[in-house]
Write a structure and sequence with these properties.
This protein is α+β, with helices and mostly antiparallel strands and about 775 residues long. The protein folds into 5 domains: about 25-130, Immunoglobulins (Immunoglobulin-like, Sandwich), CATH 2.60.40; about 145-235, Immunoglobulins (Immunoglobulin-like); about 355-455, Immunoglobulin-like, CATH 2.60.40.10; about 465-585 and about 675-705, Immunoglobulin-like, CATH 2.60.40; about 585-615 and about 645-675 and about 735-765, no CATH class. The longest helix is centred in the C-terminal third of the chain and has 39 residues, at about 635-670.
Length: about 775
């Protein structure tokens, strides 16, 4: 029965030809004496906007006679017709009032100098109005509505049985009577209402009108021979479809207004298929068609709106929206009809429908909008597969509070004034970020777009530490590495907040001109923060740009701390390979070989034995006793010789040690690199530093295919701090760092001190 219902309905609904870029209603039915407004859409081109618009009636020989145009009115239309162009909506409207049956016929609405230009065929039917015509009462009612038919009778039959018959072929079939009988096709939909003994008429009511209810009826009071009879002609009006004109890749909105008693019922939108069935695309019970996954959403507010984005040419056709307890279309159900046309000759900019990202990487989604909506609010939402909704995540005003927590530090919307696009950047990607996202504005809904984000295998293009620790009053340099393919791109750092990511001032310290060969030394972009405060704590982004288009980004969280009292005054270099490590001042570590030398010296008692001898001979009381007991100059000379031979080598050892320590400290202060974090109010530089071997990357710029970036050769001036990083190859001529030189000087000093003390202990004595 449902199949038969939609087959009948489609038989009278327009079957729109998609060959013409002009689009309008193909079938229009109106009651005599009423008016009609016919919308005709045309492609959004400058030529069409300024071209002549016309409405003509086709004759028997194929000639189309102009009735009305931009500058012409025929005598038949004077005072009752008008044509209005709406170039901003790419359509014009033909209004005709006081319709007569003579207005029925074939028409064309078109654009062009002559009537054979771009046009669309329209069939207009004017049917008789309600009332008595030639002894027959005419009634007109909409499909799915309720009709009340008045049936008169005489006083002689006021107490007799009342009944209604329908003419089917040459026979009359009983529909309902006052004894309680109801035909199975009308069960629970028909009734007879008696007005009282003083009234000489009754009401025949049909609810939930179907197309099959149309036809001729006979109202009767009394028996067949002496009863009163009246003839009725009922015509059920098919719903006139509302026209929707969409652009390929754009979006459309179905605004479904329902009766008040239906506002609490489950809503639905269905599309008529080739087999004449109406497939539910979406309803409020959670049903959703697979073909519209990620690009359809429903907002239920009593009346309800359905939005479809990413229009395809196969989306064109007939649609119905309505409400029912099971969320499905039913025969006789009040529904609103739609006719969707998809223009394939659109000049609307194409938007990327699929973007790819890697875990830990980022994507920059470009969202176009209508140029007239430059002052409108921009939004970005994530399509919810559970209820087909799309909760907003970020807007022109910043992160949406209700959705901010999962996107803290990794989502921002950047609007480029005047170029008709805005960019949404999402970094620190995870597998949970895969899904559908919508680009929205508060302006023209035809410019809404859907982007599907897919998470694929690969490595992020940009490399930077995930977290960095700064001390108040010190400076920290945070490195960010980019591969050679981004050599000519603009590099930047920005400070993230819920309102966006504000770009920091930059200072180029190295040559950035593009060349055939890529120098890895120029691919480090460093953030330098001086004199930081607690206000500088937060998220910082490192990113690249290709002209006005944003590319990859990477996020770093900066923590600002008070420096501990026991911490060293001089910070050491810690330019580790960026990754998931934390940058902070390191703790000094004694090399194993240095410990070995110091332990060896400690185990040799000769130096400490000599020191004990000096201490014993240095006691004042003992020296006086030794002088008193000495009986000859030889004894005094021997004591002096022993004292001199002991103190002179010891003094030389102490002096040499002091010189060595001074040299080490001087070299250490000269060669030290300070790495800390401070205020971004000072400098942001692109440092000319050598690249670590641990910097590798994959190309994710512009959702391109993932390719492994080949690491170029070079020394490791930034050794990796992660525990699983191993250097597999040592350079042939390793350059000693300042720390290594200090260690070697300290070692030489201890060895020399050991040798000298040994010579003093083991050498000949004159005593």
């Amino acid at each position: 029965m449902m199949l038969f219902f939609f087959a009948c309905l489609l038989a009278v609904l327009p079957v729109v030809s998609m060959k013409s870029p002009i689009f309008g209603p193909q079938e229009v039915s109106k009651v005599e004496g009423s008016s009609v407004s016919i919308k005709c859409f045309y492609p959004a081109t400058s030529v069409n906007r300024h071209s002549r618009k016309y409405w003509c009636k086709q004759g028997s020989k194929g000639r189309c006679t102009t009735l009305i145009s931009d500058t012409y009115f025929s005598k038949d239309y004077e005072g009752r017709a008008n044509i209005t162009d709406f170039p901003e909506k790419n359509m014009f409207v033909v209004d005709i009032g006081h319709l007569t049956q003579d207005d029925s016929g074939q028409y064309k609405c078109g654009v062009g100098i002559v009537n054979q230009g771009l046009f669309f065929d329209v069939n207009l039917e004017v049917i008789p109005g309600p009332g008595l015509h030639n002894g027959v009462n005419f009634y007109r009612a909409d499909l799915g509505s309720t009709v009340s038919i008045t049936c008169p009778f005489t006083s002689e039959n006021s107490m007799q049985k009342k009944s209604v018959y329908k003419k089917i072929g040459d026979n009359y079939v009983l529909v309902v009577d006052t004894t309680g009988y109801e035909d199975s096709e009308y069960r629970n939909r028909v009734s007879i209402i008696l007005q009282g003994t003083s009234e000489l008429w009754f009401n025949f009511i049909i609810k939930q009108l179907k197309l099959s209810d149309a036809g001729k009826y006979v109202c009767q009071a009394g028996d067949d021979s002496t009863g009163d009879k009246s003839n009725v002609d009922l015509k059920v009006l098919k719903p006139e479809p509302e026209l929707l004109y969409g652009d390929l890749g754009g979006s459309v909105a179905f605004h479904c207004a329902l009766d008040h008693e239906m506002k609490n019922l489950p809503k639905f939108l269905c599309r008529v298929n080739k087999d004449k069935t109406c497939e539910v695309l979406i309803n409020t019970l959670g049903k959703r068609a697979q073909a519209f996954e990620g690009r359809i959403t429903l907002k239920d507010q009593g009346f309800f709106d359905v939005y479809i984005t990413g229009l395809r040419k196969e989306d064109a056709g007939s649609y119905f929206c309505g409400a029912h307890s099971d969320g499905e279309p039913q025969e006789g159900l009040p529904m609103k009809a739609w006719q969707l046309f998809v223009n394939e000759e659109t000049t609307m900019p194409r938007s990327v429908s699929v973007m790819k990202g890697v875990v830990g990487g980022s994507v920059a989604m470009l969202c176009p909008y209508h140029p007239k909506d430059k002052n409108s609010r921009k939004f970005w939402c994530r399509w919810n597969e559970q209820n087909s909704g799309c909760p907003q995540l970020v807007s022109s005003e910043g992160l949406v509070k209700d959705q901010s927590k999962p996107y803290e530090g990794r989502l921002a919307l950047s609007e480029e004034p005047g170029n008709g696009t805005y960019t949404v950047i999402l970094n620190k990607l995870t597998t949970k970020d895969a899904g559908f996202y919508w680009c929205l504005t508060s302006g023209d809904t035809h410019w809404w777009f859907t982007v599907e984000l897919k998470i694929v295998e690969g490595e992020p293009n940009l490399k930077a530490p995930e977290k960095a620790v700064a001390f108040i009053g010190e400076t920290l340099t945070v490195p960010c590495h980019s591969p050679c393919k981004f050599f000519s791109y603009e590099k930047y750092w920005c400070k993230w907040s819920s309102k966006g990511c504000k770009v920091l001032p930059s200072q180029n310290e190295a040559s950035r001109q593009a060349s055939v060969n890529c120098d890895q030394n120029n691919q480090l972009t460093s953030l330098i923060l001086n004199q930081p405060t607690k206000a500088d704590e937060g998220w910082y982004w490192c990113g690249v740009k290709d002209g006005p288009r944003f590319g990859d980004t990477v996020a770093v969280y900066v923590v600002v701390k008070e420096k501990a009292k026991a911490s060293q005054d001089v910070s050491q270099v810690n330019a580790a390979a960026p990754g998931n490590e934390v940058i902070e001042p390191p703790v000094q570590v004694i090399e194993p070989r240095l410990k070995e030398v110091e332990n060896k010296v400690a185990r040799d008692p000769s130096l400490f034995a000599e020191d004990k001898l000096v201490k014993d001979n240095g006691d004042p009381e003992d020296r006086s006793k030794a002088s008193a007991n000495a009986g000859s100059s030889e004894g005094q000379g021997g004591s002096s010789t022993v004292l001199v031979s002991t103190l002179v080598p010891l003094a030389l050892v102490l002096a040499l040690g002091a010189v060595a320590v001074a040299v080490v400290r001087a070299r250490h202060r000269r060669n030290v690199d300070r790495v800390s974090i401070g205020s971004y109010r000072t400098d942001f530089s692109m440092t000319d530093l050598e690249n670590s071997r641990d910097f590798g990357a994959n190309d994710n710029m512009g959702a391109s295919t993932i390719t492994q970036e080949t690491s170029l050769g070079g020394g490791d001036e930034f050794p990796a701090t992660t525990e699983d990083t191993v250097d597999t190859e040592e350079p042939k001529k390793a350059k000693r760092s300042s720390k290594e030189e200090a260690d070697m000087a300290h070692t030489a000093f201890l060895l020399q001190a050991n040798n000298m003390s040994t010579n003093v202990q083991d050498g000949p004595s004159e005593a």
